[in-house]
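Section 4.2 – Deliverable D4.2 (structural model, holo form)

The reporting period included a commitment to supply a predicted holo structure for the target in complex with flavin-adenine dinucleotide. Inputs used:
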Amino acid sequence: MRIVIGGGITGLTVASQLEDTVVLEQQSSVGGLYSIEEVGGLTLTIIPPVVSSIKRLAEILPDLKLEEWRPIIKKTKEEHLKMKVCPFCDELPTWLDVKEGYLVHNLPEALLELGSKVKIVRGYPLRVREGKLFTNRGILEFSEIINTGSREELNRLIGVEEDLKKIGCLLAVIVSRGGINKWDVLLHGSAGISFSHVFRREIDEKHDVYHVYAFTRGGKHLDADRILGDLKRASVLTKEDVVTMRVRYIRECILAGEKEKNRPNFLRECGRLGLWDNLSLEEAVESALRC
Ligand SMILES: Cc1cc2nc3c(=O)[nH]c(=O)nc-3n(C[C@H](O)[C@H](O)[C@H](O)COP(=O)(O)OP(=O)(O)OC[C@H]3O[C@@H](n4cnc5c(N)ncnc54)[C@H](O)[C@@H]3O)c2cc1C
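Output (structure tokens):
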């Protein structure tokens, strides 16, 4: 049996293409970064389902509801963005380089549908020994492990050292009253403001959804109150405009560092966390199809 670690889009795509696989996913739902969040009765994703191209995505998810997206972008101190977001990165992830593309209205639902076609075990690996993966849910025998989950975590289990670096992020999804701002994307390079990227879209006549990204290294203190305070200081939203919000901390948000070429031969790796590379959604699917 092949074990696929991680039930994000990469893991689900790999598992749906191969016989005799089981997906090991640590979260209660599948979809990874695009899993569904319940926010005030609405089902949203914590990051906006925006893609610059849909060639590969449409191959595995043919029933996507797409809308062309030509964002109005407002910039404040854009020249400082890279230093603020990831000073040690050679360049920022392409998904932070906002361009025209598509909004995918039913991405989490489409991923749930894909997830329903593969076998999923809710759990995470603890140890790897002689063809056996010890997990918190029991022992799984494997012929191969396909890792699309945290490479750093897996390295610890198999006793491999690599010089991996990462930046975490606090992501907020906010439902607000509508019509407050006219831009679709705000890029904010000022170091005094916790967030750097804000995406806005209308969800109905009266409400907008804002996706706010605040990147952070180490223990820098960030929480929902700090984000709300900074949204007010940057004249984006006030607390009174907010109908409801949800925040999620992602430890492995921007990935960098040095990777070793030699890896154990029972292991294949793909997806953003497995390859430890800041892949876009399209690139993640591409990596899954080639995995
Ligand atoms: C903040 C942010 C914004 C982004 N915005 C865009 C965008 O606008 N457009 C775009 O094209 N791309 C964007 N991307 C990139 C895109 O989200 C990813 O390429 C895509 O989600 C990768 O899917 P994945 O399955 O490889 O990884 P993930 O979606 O991260 O899924 C990995 C899964 O593995 C699970 N997992 C991890 N470790 C373990 C373990 N040890 N055991 C069990 N399970 C484990 C996790 O719980 C998760 O479900 C963004 C990424 C980030 C971080």
